[in-house]
Structure formats: C-alpha cells, structure tokens
Amino acid sequence: MKMNSRSCRLNVAVIGFGNVAQALAHALSRGGHRIVFGVRNPAPGSSNQKPATEAIAQAHATILAVPFTAVPEVIKAAGSLDGKVLVDATNPIGLGEGGLGLTLGISTSGAEQIAALAPGALVFKAFNQTGFENMADAQRYASRPVMFVAGDDPTGKQTVVTLVSDAGFDVVDVGGLRQARLLEPLAMLWIELARKRGRGPNFTFTLQQKGSIP
C-alpha cells in the first residue's frame, strides 16, 4: 500500500557522519527538515554536530546511518530510546566466501535485532535499499525511486513516511518490522548490480502499476 506524507518541519538526528549520513542530511535539509548529526566527537563550535544523546533527545526521529557492526555500541551510548522513532538505514553485510553479502536473513533481520537492542524504541526499516548517491539526489530521476518502509507503530510510521517522501522517494508501506527480512536482501540486490555487475550507482528501483483499461 502506498502512503502519502503530511509534510512538516521535523528535527532529525542522523547518527553517523559517513556517506549515507551526509546524503540523507542533504536530502532532508532540502526537504525542509532540521538536521543534527549525532557523533562521538562533535567538531568544536559546530551547530549541527552534537553527542548522540543530545541529538536524539531533541529529535522527532532518529536515523541510524552507521555500519551495522557499530550499532550495538551506538545504541548503548544513546541513552533511553523509549518512545523514540528510530529509522534503521543500515544493512547487515560483511565479507564471506563469495565476497560481500548479508550476514543475516530469512529467519531474522538486522532491523529486528536493533529492535531487540532498543526494546522501547519505535523501530522502522527505510533508507537502506539504494546507494547513498541516490539518497542524496533522488529527485533527478524521471520517476521517483521507490523506498519501502517497514515498522509496527502507525503514528511513528507516518513520521517516517513524511521523511522518506520529502527525501524524494515514492513511499510504499510493506507492513510490520518483520518485513525488513525482505528489504535487506533487496538492498543486497542493488549492491550486487551496482558494484559487481557494472551498472554503477546511477540506477534505482521504481514501482509501476498498470493504468486502467478503457
């Protein structure tokens, strides 16, 4: 089911300062939202970098944009996340015999493990299904790239839908957080095509539907 956003200015904490974090901050700032990076060592005098606990405390939504392996440490350092909207933009990937691949799947997901680490948080899966290049500049495509959202809390989901739509994506609700088990392999498919099959980062997935027949 597609969902529509109700655009409004939100305070968003982006945890991390790498490519994904920077891309999402750029897109969401362009969409009218106020971004603060939650980082371990904020730059002296910076107005948009704060310790994670402070950034999260003032945010309507928090986006995890760190390597999946760093998530337990980040959540431990974040303080109370009870009632907080927490968007998981990570993917549980690592190097195996066949190269880069998922380290979890089928019977669980990275997002579900994050929910277990932060049981009071309202955890959602989004912003993980394409490369940071597309997150920064989704509006350049002729048709909006699709971004699927999974999560259980209806009110929190509307906040996430607003952010995903304002970042330039066609938002589709796929149900509860359990569906992250489908979205993380989808991210791996994008990575496979972009990094190993020669397509490069400048492509995306879209959702099309047949028009009504006269």
Summary tags:
single chain; 214 residues; alpha/beta; Rossmann fold; 8-stranded mixed β-sheet; two-stranded antiparallel ribbon; 7 helices; 10 strands; 32% helix; globular; disordered N terminus
Structural class: alpha/beta
Helical stretch tally: 7
**Second CATH tier, the architecture:** 3-Layer(aba) Sandwich
What is the 3D shape?
Answer: globular
Q: What order do the helices and strands follow?
A: EHEEHEHEEEHEHEHEH
Beta-strand percentage range: 15-25%
Q: Could you state the CATH homologous superfamily?
A: NAD(P)-binding Rossmann-like Domain
Strand numbers in spatial order across the main sheet: 3-2-1-4-5-8-9-10
Q: Give the tally of structural domains.
A: 1
Provide the gyration radius in Å. Answer: 17 Å
E-strand count: 10
Brief overview, please?
This protein has 214 residues and is an alpha/beta fold. It is built from seven helices and ten strands. The N terminus is likely disordered.
Topology, pairings included?
Elements: E1 11-15, H1 19-30, E2 34-38, E3 49-50, H2 52-57, E4 61-64, H3 71-77, E5 85-88, E6 93-96, E7 99-102, H4 110-117, E8 122-125, H5 132-136, E9 146-151, H6 154-166, E10 170-173, H7 180-196
Parallel strand pairs: 1-2, 1-4, 2-3, 4-5, 5-8, 9-10
Antiparallel strand pairs: 6-7, 8-9
